[in-house]
Amino acid sequence: MITLNHYLITSGLLFAIGLVGIMTRRNILLILLCIELMFNAANLAFIAYAKAWGDLSGQLIVFFVITVAAAEVTVGLAIAILMARQLKTLNADEVNLLKW
Amino acid sequence: MAVGGLLVSLACASWLFFQTFQGKLILPVEFAIDWLVLPDLVVPFGILIDRLSLLMSLVVTGVGSAIFLYSIGYMADDKGYSRYFALLALFVFSMLTIVLANNWVELFIGWELVGFCSYALIGHWYERPQAAEAGNKAFMVNRVADFGFLLGILALWASSSPMATERTFNYQLLQTRIPDLLETGWLSGGTMSLIGLLVFCGVIGKSAQVPLHVWLPDAMEGPTPVSALIHAATMVAAGVYLLCRVFWLFENLPGVLMVVSWVGAITALLSASLALVEHDLKRILAYSTLSQLGYMVMALGLGGAVAGMYHLSTHAFFKALLFLAAGSVIHATHRQNIWELGGLRNSMPLTSSAFLVGGLALSGFPFLSGFYSKDEILVLAHEHDAGLYAIGTITAGMTAFYITRAWFVAFARKSASPIHAHESPPVMAGPLVILSILSLFGGYLGIPAFLGQHTGHIHLQIATVSFVTIALGFGLAWLMYVKQTISPTRLASRLAWGYWVLERKYGFDRLYTWYVEQVQQRIVAGACALFERLIIIGLAVNGTAWITKTAGRLIRYCQTGKVQSYVLAFFSGVVAFLYLASRF
Q: Which one of B556, B561, B567 has the shortest CB-CB distance to A22?
């Protein structure tokens, strides 16, 4: 049987993988991808709970999250394009003007 | 002002003396207040007036007054005039603290204070490096001795009672308790001997016995009145006074007494031999002081407390006289080497006669003060130990020789180049006269009777032997330096090995310098360097830098400019928060 916990663990794993990906990737596009992964993990968790508790609010929230994710990707890609133009690189480490 | 104060002290001491003399005052008298009160320790501050302290305080204040008066003239042109008198006054205060103390702690306080005053006064002309070094040497040698002394005092305190609350520093209480404790067996004779030896350590340092005598000749760097007061009449006599105070302890310790008497005898002999070849007038007198101190200590060791104190008093008179006379010479001619002086008998008649009187008293010329006191000591030596008697007599002969030598060469000789010298002003000459009178007639003052000894007669046999010896000394000096029958230079070349040893002062100074420089300073310097390297530089200086650097390096991670590290920090915080939330 696939219980709630399975979904939750999967969601957690996906979230963690996305998190680690953010922390370790150099390529800005890959970082954005990992952010998306984290979003999806959250969505999965919401849906799992919605099914388990018989509450449709969870699925509603997923709609909102997807929308927000789309908007956020837009902004993120815009930043990536700007970065590519200004710094001629997609290496996230190069964005360090705030460094001491 | 200082002179006024001292004269008041002298007046008090004299008044007390007369009250006692007339039987109106019953001694001993003791006043004390509790100064330091701790749970198991009470340190009083008090005054004990008995015959011993009264006599000593008379000597201190009396000779001190003469020297203070003299100093007014001697130090008149000195720019450290006020400092000099302040220190001198402090010295007399400390000396009286020692004399009038009723307990060991007070004595020790005064003891250390006189050591300090001695240091300060020896180095009065501190711009002279020799003077500063001499002051240091005096104080440090004293300190070494005082270490043993302090151990002795503490041991005395500890052995004054099995119960901690009953222990005391008080002289009279100790005097009554310790014999009882010895009888009951709580204290052993061996412990008492050890304590006696430790206390004697203090005497060795303060009274400049061998082997800690090395500071006294160098102490002549100080002004001459200082040499007269501190290093002839009073401070160095404090050790002898101490021995008298603690005599009840030593009386039953024959081993310790033997050590004491032999140390005294060796000191007397050794320093007299060193005085034979000295060329500096003050140093001759310094070695002479050492020699006479040896006599006093020897007397104490032989059981003659009264004889020792008698010699202390007469010695104070004539040694102060000799020093002050020498000071007049130095003040007038600005030179101290006896070979550079000469013919002063005509230009400074008063001083010359003063020196002559002092010298005769020192040698023990019959019927002068020194004769009586030295006779007492030689009688004691004769009764106890032939070796000590022989040493005492030989030293007396040497004393006669060197002081006559000094007188002939410095005063009586017709010098090739006459020195311009004038007699001293009255303020300096007056004390000379007073002390001369005391040196001449001090034997008739009745000091031994005052201290309780009633035999004052002279042993004819011993007196004759000592007279013959000193006559030999006079004669030899006269032959060598006046008639020039025996030439000193030829004698020196024939006894060259003797001169070699004497000139190196038996190697004491070299030994001590070697020890201090090679052993002690190296260890201390090594330890200090190690400490400095490891702790001060390593820990404090470098350590502070390391701490700052590392802290900076860690805090730097807050500002990498990389978003990813911020993410990491953020999520670490989340994890921690969740963990803590789950705990509570």
A: B567
